[in-house]
Amino acid sequence: MPIRTENQLGEPCWIDLMTSDPARSIAFYAALLGWRAVDTGAESGRYTMFFHGDAAVAGLTAQDPSSGNRDFWTTYLASENVAESVRAATAAGAAVLVPPQTVGNQGRLAVLTDPAGAAVGVWEAASHSGFGADNEIGTPVWHELITRDFAGAIAFYKEVFNWAPVPLSDTTDFRYSTFGHDEAMTGGVYDADGMLPPGVPSLWQVYLGVADVRASAVKVRELGGTVLREPWDSDFGTFAQLADATGAAFLLGQVESAAF
């Protein structure tokens, strides 16, 4: 598996799961993706790191089951300075959910909602740079912003995170841009204003790589998860939308080779 040694500024560099049942979540992803869970200790709030092989690929933290909050994945974008990114983001219309804070010797984080309401994390690396591997089976392979304000979202992330979006389609039926650096696209932005049900805010969603999406969707059901959208084929690959055993939503993308 190729080892990722650098995360470009403004690009997704980490994901973590907020779960009401850590043991059940750990068992689910271990069985589905072969992830190995490592408790990082009391000093880090019992944060769990997921590894695929020797590469760190995701994290997990517990939330109070009585809170009534849903379980969810968060995508983090790389920053050289979290405080500066938060200042720029709030000036551009974002709100702060979690203010900048230091995580041991790992780095610094914050969590924002962008002007269209999508929650996104910001990560300033110290000893933990982010993904140790991606775009492979068992790792994150794509990151997608589903937004009610496509033009506003593009402008916001260009200004705050220095994105250089590339339009993929610009019709009323399908408006989508990719983003990344040096022709290596790492994510996309989808105009979902006409698709999201009333009251559902914009959101980020993560795609995890598997060798066979259809077989993995069957396994998700066997592990207590839910298939939210049955596997489908597109010009870009085979995908499915799922919820894990505690209800956190994610997608699977079929990985045919080292490149996604």
UniProtKB/TrEMBL annotation:
Protein name: VOC family protein
Stored InterPro entries: Anthracycline_SecMetBiosynth, Glyas_Bleomycin-R_OHBP_Dase, Glyas_Fos-R_dOase_dom, VOC_core
Domain VOC: 11-125, 139-255
CDD domains: SgaA_N_like (cd07247)
